[in-house]
Amino acid sequence: MKQLFIFVDGFGLGAPAADNPIRPEVCPAICELLASHCVPLDACLGVPGLPQSATGQAALFCGRNAAAFMGRHVTGFPGPTLRAFVEESNIFTMLKADGRRARFADAYLADSPDELRARRFRSVTTTAALTVPETLSFRADLLHNQALLHDITRESLASKGYDGPTVTPQEAADHLVQLALGYDYTLFEYFLTDQVGHSGSYEAACAVLRTLDAFLGALFPLATEMGISTALSSDHGNIEAIAMKTHTLNPVPLIATGPGADALLSSCTSIADVTPAILRNLAENVKV
Ligand SMILES: [Zn+2]
Question: What is the pLDDT of residue 11?
Fold first, then answer.
C-alpha cells in the first residue's frame, strides 16, 4: 500500500463566520472533503496557550506530545532540544526501520543535503527528512517533475531567477500522485495557509485557498483511483479566523480517503496520534 500525506500549515476547523474563508464558494472540494471524510483533531496537546508550529509539527511527525515534552508551545523553527527530539525518532526514521521507502516531495532550491545542513534555520519537516537524506527532493527533481514546489504552481520562483515553466494545480496533483506510486510514504507540505493567516487579508486567504482547492480537488480522486491511501492534517488553526492574525485554539482536520481511511479516522483524536496511525495503516494494508 502507498500512503500520501498532505500537511497544510495553519488550517483549523472554525464555525462559519464572516472572517472564515473556508466556505464552499471559495474552496468547494475542500469543504466536500471536510464534510464527508474528516474528523477533528486536538492541536492544543494539553498545554496552555496558543499552539505553535515547531511543537505542533513535531507532535504530528514524531507521534509524541512535543509540547508536553517542552512544557510549552514552541514557535517557528526548533531549537537544539526540540531538534534532538525530532532527530531521535520521526516518521522517516520509523519508516526506514520498517524497511519502507519514503519521500518528502517539496523540492528544496539546493543541490544536496549538506546545503540544507548548512542553513541556520531548519523547520521540523526539514529536520526530520534530513535524518533520512534519501527522502529529500532537490532542484533537479523539480525540473524533472519528480517533486513539487511548496506553492504548488511554482509562480513564486519567478522572483528567484527561475525561468522554467509554471504548472497548474491539476498538473502538480498529477506529479505528486505519480511520485507517490514509487514510495511507501510521500509527504507534501503546504505552508502558505499559515503565512496568509498571519497577514489578516481575507482576499489573500481566498486566493491561497483557491489554489489549494484546485490541487486537492484533483489530487484526492486521482490518488483514490490509483489505490493510494491519502490523508491530510495540520499543526494548528489560523486561516479559518482571518480577523485574528495569530494561531487559534480550534481543532484541525484529519481527512483520509482510500485504503485504511476508516481506521485512520477512528483512531486519531489529537495530532500526536497521526503518525502512529499511519504506520499501523501501512503495516495492516501491506498487500492492498
Ligand atoms: Zn504560524
Answer: 98
Between the CA of 78 and the centroid of ligand 1 the distance, in Å, is 13
C-beta separation of 55 from 70 below 8 A: yes
Cell 499511519 identifies what position?
278
CA distance 122 to 76: 9
Is the per-residue pLDDT at 99 higher than 90?
Answer: yes
Q: Which tens digit of pLDDT belongs to each residue from 128-162?
A: 999 999 999 999 999 999 999 999 999 999 888 77
> What separation in Å is there between the alpha carbon of 11 and the centre of ligand 1?
10
C-alpha of residue 104 to centroid of ligand 1, in Å: 21
Ligand 1: distance of its center to the CA of 201 in Å?
14
How much is the pLDDT for 286?
Answer: 67
What is the predicted pLDDT for the residue at 244? 93
Alpha-carbon distances of 287 from 84, 95, 96, 180, 271, rounded to whole Å? 34, 17, 19, 16, 27
SS3 24: coil
Give the model's confidence band at 208: pLDDT under 50 very low, under 70 low, under 90 confident, else very high.
very high
pTM for the model: 0.97
Ordered by where they begin, the domains of the chain are: 3-284 (3.40.720.10)
10 Å Cβ neighbour count for 164?
11
CA of 75 from ligand 1 middle (Å) equals 8
How wide is the angle at C-alpha 27 spanned by C-alphas 281 and 275, nearest 5°?
20
Centre of ligand 1 to C-alpha 95, Å, is 28
CA of 159 to the centre of ligand 1 (A): 23
- CA of 74 from ligand 1 middle (Å) equals 11
Task: Give CA torsion, residues 259, 123, 53, 229, to 10 deg.
Answer: 0
